[in-house]
Design brief:
Helices cover about 50% and strands about 15% of the residues. It has a four-stranded mixed beta sheet. The chain contains twelve helices and ten strands.
């Protein structure tokens, strides 16, 4: 698609910032296992922590195409950071805007959009990943609120979050209609981080096992109506999948750029290896596949901007972009040969970071199920 001047300006501004301020520190983020104090507020000053939120609540008021472009550029600099920003925008801020009441929005949105607070999305459990209806975490109603008991697994930002949007069963007999959502401040008594997972990639973005030992949540912090939690959780899938698809494009682009630069400079048999058909054709194929994935992402975002249902298109974008990205990063390693396997060239880190994109925000198998149903 052809971008508007405003969309191009946002893309270019985020690219300049990310390449200057983020990419040189990406390896440090990974080795330290986190992000430095003030970084999220720095991102917020650029409008990146509430991109699609209206200006009336402090957001940027950008469209979803601009949001996808920004995530592509952030991910090209650091995959883990783009994960935190994606969840903050698509699942936390957007979730509160859509389903939160006036008091909840007034209490939490200013800090979230300003980067003073990070949110976590706590749906997945040990035995309830793709099948979100199989939750075991319970929320038992009592005077003035609910008492949460249970555990969550694979929760991004569970350690650094100020609030967690938690989904729990309020009526076991009602199946999917018995799940409710809650806004849980992480300093609540009984909220604890059981474990910070040691992962293959995206080490700077913490992924945690969370436990709720009788956490009291006042009724005023229930998100939406009782029993509406399953629908609320699934209603954010379009934006969430567009976000992850965008980060896949960004990481793949970064790896491809490294491979192209290397292939231009490295000589064998008297000429740059780019001029050898085996290498040139590999890079040409990867560039074409990446552009196809990029256009799927931007098309899904444009449909969302137009107010059209786009779950199928978002799932297509996420499926194609995530699987294409891993293939492109692997091909970049192959292009660099032994150097691609070394940390100092940067492709190895991208390879570690990109692999999870076929798993979170719905596995590739789930995306195929969604697409098949739409067919």
């Amino acid at each position: 698609m052809i971008l508007s001047p405003e969309q191009s300006a946002i893309r270019d501004a985020v690219r300049d910032y990310a390449q200057e301020r983020i990419r040189p520190r990406s390896a440090t983020f990974e080795s330290s296992g986190g992000f430095p104090a003030g970084l999220f507020e720095e991102l917020a000053a650029l409008g990146l922590m509430g991109m699609t939120a209206p200006s009336a609540v402090g957001g940027t008021g950008a469209d979803y195409v601009s949001y996808a472009l920004a995530l592509i550029e952030l991910a090209a600099a650091d995959g883990a950071l783009s994960t935190v920003v994606s969840i903050q925008n698509s699942l936390i801020v957007s979730g509160l805007l859509k389903d939160g009441n006036a008091q909840q929005k007034a209490r939490f949105l200013p800090d979230l959009i300003a980067g003073r607070m990070i949110g976590a999305f706590a749906l997945t459990e040990t035995d309830a990943g793709s099948d979100a209806s199989a939750l075991r975490t319970r929320a038992i109603k009592e005077e003035g609120g609910y008492r949460l008991t249970g555990a969550k697994q694979f929760i991004t930002s569970g350690k650094i979050a100020g609030i967690a949007i938690v989904y729990a069963v309020t009526d076991p007999a009602a199946g999917k209609r018995g799940i409710s959502g809650f806004i849980v401040p992480t300093d609540s008594e009984g909220y604890s981080v059981d474990k910070v997972e040691h992962k293959l990639g995206q080490a700077a973005s913490d992924t945690c096992a969370i436990r709720f030992d009788g956490v009291f949540v006042p009724e005023s912090l229930r998100l939406g109506g009782e029993g509406a939690g399953y629908g609320i959780a699934l209603s954010n899938l379009e934006a969430g999948r567009i976000g992850i698809a965008a980060q896949c494009v960004g990481m793949a682009q970064a790896a491809l750029d490294i491979a192209i630069g290397y292939a231009r400079d490295r000589k064998s048999f008297g000429k740059p290896i780019m001029e050898h058909q085996a290498v040139g054709f590999r890079l040409a194929d990867n560039a074409a596949r990446l552009e196809a994935a990029r256009q799927l992402v931007l098309h899904a975002a444009a449909m969302k901007d137009a107010g059209l249902p786009c779950l199928k298109e978002a799932s297509m974008a996420k499926l194609v972009a995530s699987e294409t990205a891993e293939a492109i990063v692997s091909a970049a390693i192959q292009t660099l040969g032994g150097y691609g396997y070394l940390e100092e060239y940067g492709v190895a880190k991208i390879y570690r970071d990109v692999r999870v994109c076929q798993i979170y925000e719905g596995t590739s198998d789930i995306q195929r199920m969604v697409i098949a149903r739409a067919l």
